[in-house]
Amino acid sequence: MWVRHRVFVQEQGVAPEIEWDEIDRDAIHLAAISGGRVVGAARVFSDGAEWHVGRVAVLQQYRGRGVGTLLMRVAEGIAQERGALEVALNAQAPVVEFYLRLGYSGEGSIFFEAGIPHRRMIKRLTELLTEKALSLELTL
Ligand SMILES: CC(C)(COP(=O)(O)OP(=O)(O)OC[C@H]1O[C@@H](n2cnc3c(N)ncnc32)[C@H](O)[C@@H]1OP(=O)(O)O)[C@@H](O)C(=O)NCCC(=O)NCCS
Q1: What's the pTM?
Q2: Which of 29, 102, 116, 121 has the greatest count of CB atoms below 10 A from its CB?
Q3: Within a domain: 140
Q4: What pLDDT, in 10s, does the model give residues 63-109?
């Protein structure tokens, strides 16, 4: 949760009352840990109709080292284990490329959330992802 505060509230200026919402109560929360420190976070949840990944955040000094990819793979694996055939997310426009590289496709037009332009993206889950995620090696 501290990572989300650092990245979304402090770095991006999202209001805390928007950052923390009712989804947090029931979502599955992921934390990426390096050297005993939480360096990344994400949440995965179902709204009853589809599975979503959201609030993907990596501390600035740990970016570009595969932490975001690892969080996404684990989140997708968790959704898949619970029966998801696809995962949806609302990507901030500047990071659409990050999700494209992970196999997501854009859907519909740009919309604003917390004052930030977003695009809905989806990915069909076609392979078993959890083992692949666990075998990813990180050197931080
Ligand atoms: C987006 C974010 C989670 C990515 O995490 P990360 O740990 O840096 O990502 P990775 O190191 O796994 O990057 C995977 C690939 O995506 C690319 N990538 C990462 N962030 C990118 C960006 N903002 N724009 C374009 N490409 C990006 C990386 O270069 C890397 O490419 P490579 O495989 O060719 O090396 C991180 O930059 C972040 O926390 N950003 C601020 C919060 C945010 O905007 N979250 C998304 C909300 S929708």
Answers
A1: 0.91
A2: 121
A3: no
A4: 999 999 999 999 999 999 999 999 999 999 999 999 999 999 999 99
